[in-house]
Design goal:
alpha+beta; 5-stranded antiparallel sheet; 309 residues; 23% strand
Length: 309
């Protein structure tokens, strides 16, 4: 796996207009470095223009010919605060061409990957609310550390239904999971609708105990951007990567939002078996049809008998 973050951090920022090759066997060569204005840069060298179109206020696209008729396509990061996600973007872009011997195929892959990413860097909303971002963080954390180890990458990503506003966060075969992210000491979790714990089939309630920590914290999987950076290399199919990134966007998150670097320290994940005897409110418990959109708080100590050790 290419670690662009380490490569960029190892550069001397005072040396401008420099770039260094990324080892690859593909027809299109990749480079990293610093542009003439001192911005971090990711570049691709090909014999033809791969036609990567569109740019945002955070990523400048510079194109031009080189010696012997070769063509440069360069992506310059305009905001240092987005370096971690720029590295995620860069690693994904490089991965699609690093071993492709056919330049036409590599150019098509590069063009498609950029088209997916450029939409995710366009800030077209007011920013994600802190609590919603914490919920997204918890679901991504569970996806990487709980669901994928059990069900594998493809089924897990396809089964992530939280962004689709489905009744459960994960549906995989006969299994379902509902994720709640809360502080390490909270005695309750909010159940936003009856459907979240209502099912004819047993499932699991996963409570992610996460503490808000400072920007200086540097743990593994500690924010949304780091989780995306860890998850994307696990997804081999480009179509499945597109599906994953689309779900991130549908959740309401875009990569220009600084909340992607908001840090959390996950203390533990508590797992509860939700069986027919689990004391949750279910649709058939409600005596009147006029009640709709019911939410409630679940007291976790009161369901400790359903907790996995």
């Amino acid at each position: 796996m290419i670690n662009l973050y380490e490569k960029f951090k190892g550069l001397n920022r005072s040396i401008h207009d420099c770039q260094y090759p990324i080892n690859s066997s593909g027809a299109i060569k990749a480079y990293y470095g610093i542009d003439i204005n001192g911005f971090f840069r990711l570049s691709f060298l090909s014999t033809k223009n791969p036609e990567c179109k569109g740019e945002t206020k955070n990523i400048q696209v510079v194109k031009g010919t080189a010696s012997e008729g070769n063509f440069w396509t360069c992506f310059n990061l305009q905001t240092d605060s987005l370096l971690s996600v720029f590295c995620t973007f860069g690693e994904d872009m490089v991965s699609c061409v690093i071993s492709e011997p056919d330049e036409s195929k590599a150019a098509a892959l590069l063009r498609k990957r950029y088209s997916t990413w450029v939409a995710l860097f366009k800030k077209n909303r007011s920013g994600m609310a802190v609590e919603k971002a914490k919920g997204l963080f918890g679901e991504l954390y569970v996806l990487k550390n709980v669901i994928i180890p059990i069900h594998g990458v493809e089924l897990s990503v396809k089964g992530w239904s939280g962004p689709d506003k489905a009744s459960k966060d994960f549906f995989i075969g006969e299994s379902w999971y509902e994720v709640k992210t809360t502080s390490p000491t909270s005695p309750t979790v909010k159940i936003a609708s009856i459907d979240q714990l209502d099912s004819d089939k047993p499932g699991k309630l996963l409570v992610v105990r996460a503490e808000d920590v400072s920007d200086a914290y540097n743990g593994d999987d500690c924010n949304i951007n780091k989780l995306c950076q860890a998850l994307l290399p696990l997804i081999e199919s480009q179509d499945l990567k597109d599906d994953f990134l689309k779900k991130i966007s549908e959740y309401g998150f875009d990569f220009s939002d600084e909340i992607g670097d908001k840090n959390y320290d996950v203390k533990r994940i508590e797992r509860f078996n939700v069986t027919p005897s689990f004391p949750a409110i279910r649709a058939n418990n409600i005596p009147v049809s006029s009640v709709n959109n019911l939410s409630y708080e679940l007291v976790l100590n009161a369901v400790k008998d359903f907790k996995e050790e």
